[in-house]
Amino acid sequence: MSMDKNNKIKILVIEDDPVITDFLCTGLKYEGYEVTSRTAGKAGLDALQQTTFDLIILDVMLPDIDGFEVCRRIRDRGSDIPILILTVKKEISDRVKGLDSGADDYLTKHFSFDELLARIRALLRRRGKISKNRKLQADAIVLNLETREVSRKGKRIDLTPTEFGLLELFMRHPHRVFTRETLLNRVLGYDYDGGTNIIDVHISHLRNKLGDRPPRLIRTIYAVGYAFYPEETGT
């Protein structure tokens, strides 16, 4: 997704967990969003009085007023800003409560950043904030975001959700170098407690499925991580 540097999409994150806040803010800024964060419900409501935002990511368990009440107050003001609720609660009744309070979508922790971005893009598309182009293309690879199908030179390639997430990230950001830690957090989630070598395994599988031979599409950047170079491969 491309955004004009002078017209960035503004996201307000209302979350009191510093680990999750850092995970969200770092990743979203990396994607080109302008991000503001607040650690309490009242502070979040005050921020909305001062600045116009395009989307809110709202935690339920806040130290003062809960996210459901924050959501209700936002709607009582007449605002139709998209609201994505985050919570550790997985019960259907809590999801219903969140949606009934005025939220547009509901994501339970623990989530991958790839899923979060997909939810954000869906909400923004509904409001006409971003392009409705649902395909990414590079080096005869076509990635369909709607059907989650991938093909190269017309031949369908079956990918796991993790492989799809990696490829989507690479195709959205050609030439950008991603560390293994970044890829781990972005695709498997901020709370994944396995080693970073799992990324090497997923990259190896993805390369094999793409028929990615030297000079590679997905390059290993020594002692750092990986980067995607779609126009420099002879495969």
Task: Report on this structure.
The chain is an alpha/beta fold and 235 residues long. The protein folds into 2 domains: 10-126, Rossmann fold (3-Layer(aba) Sandwich); 135-228, Arc Repressor Mutant, subunit A, CATH 1.10.10.10. Helices cover 39% and strands 21% of the residues. The chain is built from 8 helices and 12 strands. It has helices spanning 18-30, 41-50, 67-76, 92-100, 113-126, 161-172, 180-188, 197-210, and strands at 10-14, 34-38, 55-59, 83-87, 105-108, 135-138, 141-144, 149-152, 155-157, 178-179, 218-221, 225-228. Strands 2-1-3-4-5 form a 5-stranded parallel β-sheet, with helices on both faces. The protein has a 4-stranded antiparallel β-sheet with strand order 6-7-8-9, with helices on one face. It has a 3-stranded antiparallel β-sheet with strand order 10-12-11. Helix 2 (41-50) packs parallel to helix 3 and helix 6 crosses helix 8 (197-210). The longest helix has 14 residues, at 113-126. It is elongated, with a radius of gyration of 19 Å.
